């Protein structure tokens, strides 16, 4: 099977479970931190892919990469992924979850380029306005 297909399946299952438990935003934050950890620490991927490292140590590393207080569901999900031997796909699953969550919440990313610096108050208003406009269909 393709890595993309597998990672999206796991991410969909995680999003469905998180939505049912109403913790999808918490899991989203955890998956963002996990994805960022893989980007900032390239050695993390090598360590997680190492077959000589035990599952308990991999779990501890991944939970540490998620942050201080991961959502309970995030911790259970990491255990499941490791139990199924899919640790090589954790980074792809995290990125897939982020994408699916943003689609579910109708969130888009954009870049504002201006000739002058934007005041923080204006920036906060703009991001709120655009998100509200997108959700309302305007």
List its traits.
single chain, 138 residues, mainly alpha, 72% helix, globular, disordered C terminus
SSE layout:
Blueprint: H1 3-20, H2 24-40, H3 42-49, H4 55-66, H5 72-83, H6 90-104, H7 120-136
Structural commentary:
This protein has 138 residues and is an all-alpha fold. Helix content is 72%, strand content 0%. α2 (24-40) crosses α4 (55-66) and α4 packs antiparallel against α5 (72-83). Mean pLDDT is 86; it is low at 128-138.
Global mean pLDDT: 86
Our count of helices gives 7
For the secondary structure, the number of strands is 0
Largest sheet: none
Span between termini: 40 Å
Would you tell me the structural class of the helices and strands?
mainly alpha
Short description:
This protein is mainly α.
């Amino acid at each position: 099977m393709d890595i993309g297909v597998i990672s999206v399946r796991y991410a969909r299952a995680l999003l469905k479970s998180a939505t049912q438990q109403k913790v999808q935003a918490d899991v989203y934050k955890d998956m963002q931190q996990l994805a960022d950890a893989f980007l900032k620490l390239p050695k993390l991927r090598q360590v997680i892919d190492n077959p000589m490292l035990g599952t308990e140590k991999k779990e501890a590393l991944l939970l540490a990469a998620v942050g201080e207080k991961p959502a309970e569901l995030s911790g259970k999900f990491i255990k499941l992924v490791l139990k199924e031997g899919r640790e090589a796909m954790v980074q792809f699953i995290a990125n897939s979850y982020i994408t699916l969550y943003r689609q579910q919440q109708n969130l888009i990313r954009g870049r504002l380029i201006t000739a002058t610096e934007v005041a923080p108050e204006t920036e906060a208003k703009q991001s709120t306005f655009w998100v509200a406009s997108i959700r309302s269909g305007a």
